[in-house]
Design goal:
Number of strands of chain B: 0
Number of helices of chain A: 17
Number of strands of chain A: 14
CATH superfamily of chain B: MetI-like
Shape of chain B: globular
Structural class of chain A: alpha/beta
CATH architecture of chain B: Orthogonal Bundle
Distance between the termini of chain A: 62 Å
Order of helices and strands of chain B: HHHHHHHHHHHHH
Helix content of chain B: over 70%
Oligomer: heterodimer
Distance between the termini of chain B: 43 Å
Largest sheet of chain A: 6 strands, mixed
Largest sheet of chain B: none
CATH class of chain B: Mainly Alpha
Number of domains of chain B: 1
CATH class of the largest domain in chain A: Alpha Beta
CATH topology of the largest domain in chain A: D-Maltodextrin-Binding Protein, domain 2
Strand content of chain A: 5-15%
Number of helices of chain B: 13
CATH topology of chain B: MetI-like fold
Chain lengths: 424, 296
């Protein structure tokens, strides 16, 4: 008898659970819609920032409720993939890489007319002719930041414009007992900054279509011009312009080391501008990675806000929310201050965002505003020039390996092999 | 006085318990392994709606995957070295802590502490210890052992050593407790008889302690090996598999293949390989150590 009761209880529970599952409906009830939004938190993009920015955009879309899903780390792409694999792909996804998800038909493009009407560089991060992320801001990746006092101490009066001058300045700094270049090498993306710099500048600077040609198999990492560019990075290592233990320095520590005056220069994305304390910002300047002939090349990446899932239950409300969020200057203000982002919304100046930028920020932003040779920052752009999915890690690993190894040809051959695997 | 009713053979309640246990085992072990085996025969990509059966293509690719070769060799070397070190240290600590006073009981708890901590926390804590200006470099500098900070996580060789050190530290907590339990089951009379026969401390350890620890050692070594073969969390937090993939374990490689390279099918094939390697090693080592127990 007791067993029958137990069996009955189990069946009842199972039926209740089944009924509960089938009754749960994702999305709309009574005209109201609930959508999920994948975000990520950093010291600047805090939980309260997301809450308030979401609340403001929600107000402009009646009947919409947003549920915030926070990525466990800043690698949104990997987390979005995990969510997709478990059938929980969010309706809105902040700052993901469209080229990873769009080919699978997971993303919905924005109306081109809205993009054209609101942004300075409407196709800056377009993938296959469609815009999946509003191009709200941009970055230069990397710039070379420098400490003015340490430059003066080493007798350097102006920033270098050619590679030869750059190396000469590094030598002067080293001779003065100053470590020329900071590197947060234990975080692989930071370790790869010098490699990103020389490849973007020397290879893409001369042939902006190089990545498209690499996709077509017409050029390779083992080509002499690429290996020559990589050899420049090796020279910086072998000449002792980085700390010998730089691969043990974290990204966070590298920022502290540089801002506290332990090293003279720092190759980093322009988001580093947000990490310079305002009180000492006047002591820092920036320049672009010098080229052999002194020409200006800007390794450039247009970023933006959120992508929209192609399977969202309410495309209209998802789009309305995304558009409202993307055009709110208050949201971009946080990115300007904390992430050193360069705004690209039409009809607005820096003053419209209510920030008081430092001189080094203004000087850096000028490279964006000027008409110059902007090329894709290799490994950072999210447009057609984005690296194949998974190749970024191989690129970073090559940079770390080349810190300890002279085998430029071997590492470039491995990158070619990894490229083939990634694009199979 | 009441006595608990002893389950009878053929009792339906026992059958129900067995069915539930078996059901859970099948649901959470057999089905996922079966699914992984099936996926390993496909080109499944987490972003694509459909996958295709590709036969043994993924397994053929295993033979030419240099990254897999390096991650597997790192994993095997690390498993062997750390298992030996952690178990040797565990036996040593167990002998030192084999006392009954309160202070020794507290020290046992402290020795077990690393095993209780999450691998991610352990990884992050040691990352700070190994930093250029971390505690370890400060300590070694203060003692005059080094003059310049050592980049513990910056060079491939030192990073491998650092991962091994941390893994051994964590596992030693477990091996200490297992060996301590085994030590306490050794009859005191054996030591008394050995003393009467004139055996010294080393001889007592060699002929009594070490041999009588055999059952505990079998468990400890086997579990240590399996833990090391699937090591992921500590490495992910400590080095992220770097520099330049030098500390990428096979488990970490599987995660990267699946969620960075979007290759669920191939990642499943690597996972099946790791399962086979782990099973082969665990069975061989257990068989070998059990034979030692029989010799007692």
């Amino acid at each position: 008898m007791r067993q029958r009761r137990l069996l009955a209880a189990c069946l009842t529970t199972a039926l209740a659970l089944t009924a509960g599952c089938s009754a749960a409906s994702p999305g709309a009830t009574n005209g109201n819609v609930s959508l999920t939004y994948l975000t990520f938190e950093t010291p600047d993009l805090t939980a309260s920032f997301w809450q308030s920015s979401i609340a403001q955009a929600e107000k402009q879309v009646p009947g919409l409720t947003i549920k915030d899903i926070v990525s466990p780390n800043t690698d949104r792409d990997s987390y979005a993939k995990q969510l997709q694999a478990s059938g929980q792909f969010p309706d809105l996804l902040e700052s993901i890489t469209p080229s990873t998800f769009a080919p699978a038909g997971l993303l919905m493009p924005y109306p081109q007319s809205w993009v054209n009407a609101n942004f300075l560089d409407p196709m800056g991060n377009a993938y296959k002719g469609k815009v999946y992320i509003p191009p709200t801001n941009s970055q230069i990746i990397p710039m070379v930041f420098y400490n003015k006092k340490l430059f003066a101490q080493a007798g350097i009066s102006s920033t270098p414009t050619t590679w030869a001058q750059f190396m000469a300045d590094c030598a002067k700094l080293k001779a003065a007992g100053i470590t020329p270049m900071e590197l947060g090498g234990s975080d692989s993306f930071a370790a790869a900054m010098p490699l990103t710099a020389v490849l973007s500048t020397d290879v893409l600077g001369k042939d902006p279509s190089w990545l498209q040609q690499r996709y077509a198999g017409k050029v390779h990492f083992t080509d002499p011009n690429v290996e020559a560019a990589v050899a420049k990075y090796r020279t910086m290592v072998t000449d002792g312009y980085f700390e010998p233990g730089a691969l043990g320095v974290s990204y966070a520590d590298s920022i502290t080391n540089f801002t506290s005056g332990k090293t003279a220069m720092y190759m980093m994305g322009s988001w580093f501008l947000g990490s310079i304390p305002a009180a000492i910002a006047a002591n820092f300047g920036s320049f672009l990675t010098p080229t052999d002939d002194g020409s200006v090349v800007v390794p450039y990446a247009v970023g933006g806000s959120m992508a929209i899932s192609a399977s969202t239950p309410s495309p209209a409300k998802a789009t309305a929310f995304a558009e409202a969020w993307s055009l709110n200057p208050a949201n971009l203000k946080t990115l300007l201050q904390g992430d050193g982002a360069f705004p690209l919304i039409k009809g607005k100046t820096i003053a419209d965002y209510g920030v008081d930028p430092s001189q080094v920020y203004q000087d850096s932003y000028n490279y964006v505003l000027q008409n110059n040779n902007k090329v894709s920052a290799i490994g950072w752009v999210t447009n057609d020039d984005a690296l194949p999915s998974g190749l970024n890690d191989d690129f970073y690993a090559a940079a770390q390996a080349l810190f300890n190894s002279n085998d430029v040809a071997g590492q470039m051959a491995k990158l070619d092999s990894d490229w083939s695997t990634a694009t199979q | 006085m009441t006595t608990r009713a002893r389950p009878r053979r053929g009792d339906p309640a026992l059958g129900l318990i067995a069915v539930v246990a078996l059901g859970l085992y099948v649901l959470f072990i057999i089905v996922p392994v079966g699914m992984s085996a099936w996926k390993s025969l496909t080109d499944e990509n987490p972003l694509m709606a459909q996958s295709h059966f590709i036969g043994l293509a993924n397994y053929r690719e295993l033979l030419h995957d240099s990254t897999l070769a390096s991650s597997l060799s790192f994993t095997l070397v690390m498993a062997a070295v750390v298992t030996i070190v952690a178990n040797a240290a565990g036996i040593g600590f167990a002998i030192l802590l084999n006392k009954t006073s309160l202070s020794f009981r507290m020290m046992r708890a402290v020795a077990f502490l690393p095993q209780v901590l999450s691998g991610v926390i352990v990884g992050f804590v040691w990352r700070y210890i190994f930093a250029e200006d971390g505690i370890l470099n400060h300590l070694l500098t203060a003692l005059g052992i080094i003059s310049q900070p050592v980049s513990w996580l910056g060079s491939p060789d030192l990073a491998m050593f650092s991962v091994g050190l941390v893994a051994a530290w964590v596992l030693t907590g477990f091996t200490t407790v297992v060996h301590l339990a085994a030590l306490q089951s050794i009859p005191v009379e054996l030591y008394q008889a050995a003393t009467v026969d004139g055996a010294g401390r080393w001889q007592q350890f060699r002929w009594i302690t070490f041999r009588m620890l055999a059952p505990g050692t079998t468990i400890s070594v086997t579990i240590s090996l399996i833990t090391m073969l699937k090591l992921y969390d500590i490495i992910a937090a400590l080095t992220g598999g770097g520099p330049a993939f030098a500390t990428q374990s096979t488990a970490l490689y599987i995660i990267n293949l699946a969620f960075t390279d979007d290759r669920f099918g191939y990642a499943s094939a690597v996972a099946m390989l790791l399962l086979a390697v782990s099973a082969a090693i665990a069975l061989s080592v257990t068989g070998l150590l059990r034979r030692r127990e029989v010799d007692l």
